[in-house]
Amino acid sequence: MGGTLLVATVSPAILNRLYTSGDDYSRASDIGQAYGAASALLAALALLVVSASLAVQYGQFRYERIQAIHQRTEDLVKLAIENPEYCQCWGSRVSPEHVDERLFYYCSLIIKSWTRAWERGGLTAPEARNFLAQFFDSEVPRLFWQRHGDWHLYRKPRTRAARFMALVNEEYLRAVKVGPPSRPYEPPGFPVNPPWNGFAKSTRLGDKVVRPQRRRESRATE
Question: How many structural domains comprise the chain?
Fold first, then answer.
């Protein structure tokens, strides 16, 4: 593209050097005008290609930036799952009192994972419906979507992500219509909301630090 544009631009000057004073300048003028029009057309085409390339690069940059934000958010959610005392830092409870909040956080991660796969074309509609049907055959996912889904609203999907959310709502309502889930809520064998034991941990750590010091002091006294 660059070589063609260069040739079209310098061609009139080359023609002027080739034609002497006794030649027909009207013919040279016509040829020069033709090359000038071609040069302008190629310049416009080159500008269009550059603009399209910049638009693609910006879209890719924006997508990567959004994905980075999503990844950081998921890391924070996983941290709350591993450390239940951090769940309260997200605000009010996201689950009923008798349900461990970490189960709702995990359901959220599942939905986000499927949404990304759908957006990238790695998940078809039949596959998504099959996964969602199994998902909502458990009581915990139903409770999660009942509280945090937009199944009670009707919005015309305009993006792939919105279309997937529409599929989620359809499968949720279908599951509710069929009847109770085959897998009821299974209470964990540990407390649903275990108390924060950070003070106990710090005390144990203090014992490990203080006790050797006390031993050294007692030995020095002896």
Answer: 2
